[in-house]
Design a protein that fits this description.
There is one protein chain. This protein is mostly beta strands and about 140 residues long. Helix content is about 0%, strand content about 50%. It has strands at about 10-20, 30, 35-40, 55-60, 70, 75, 85-90, 100-105, 110-120, 125-135. The strands form two sheets. It has a five-stranded antiparallel beta sheet, with no helix packed on it. Strands 2, 4, 5, 7 and 9 form a five-stranded antiparallel beta sheet that branches. The protein starts with 7 loop residues before the first strand and ends in a 5-residue tail after the last strand.
Length: about 140
């Protein structure tokens, strides 16, 4: 059996936890491999989401790790039309856990993912995110 785990780098973007307010996004380098896929793990909504009480996932990127800008539609595969860096929004009831995936093709060295909470969130929502980079340029991982 071939061990393919040596051909990928998995890095946490948003630590697994129950959130009711914005996370503090950490910078993750995504230039170490040929491609990068963001996996967003969404638990059952702690509240009934609406256009007022919502969570928006904002992806930013940077060449130097200092100056970050919002990604645009051309930078992410699988997110549809992107406005203000928002790759995913929870704006309606979310009664089942799910995993969403997005391909980052923006070409910058670093990314950050912010879970931005708006409105009232009296009960937290479990979530997390990782970025999986495949076919690293340097081996072994």
């Amino acid at each position: 059996m071939i061990d393919k785990s040596k051909d990928m780098i998995v890095t946490e973007l948003v630590p697994a936890a129950a959130y009711s307010a914005d996370n503090t996004p950490a910078a993750v380098e995504v230039s170490e491999a040929r491609d990068a896929t963001i996996l967003l793990f969404l638990g059952i909504g702690g509240i009934t989401f609406s256009t007022t009480n919502k969570v928006e996932f904002v992806l930013t990127h940077s060449s130097d790790g200092a100056d970050y800008t919002n990604v645009e539609t051309r930078d992410v595969v699988g997110a549809g039309e992107i406005t203000s860096g928002i790759i995913c929004s929870l704006k309606e009831a979310h009664a089942a856990a799910e995993v969403k995936k997005y391909g980052y093709v923006g070409g910058k060295k670093y990314i950050k993912l912010l879970a931005k909470f708006s409105g009232t969130h009296g009960t937290a929502t479990p979530l997390s995110a990782v970025v999986v980079q495949c076919e690293p340029y340097k081996r072994p991982v």
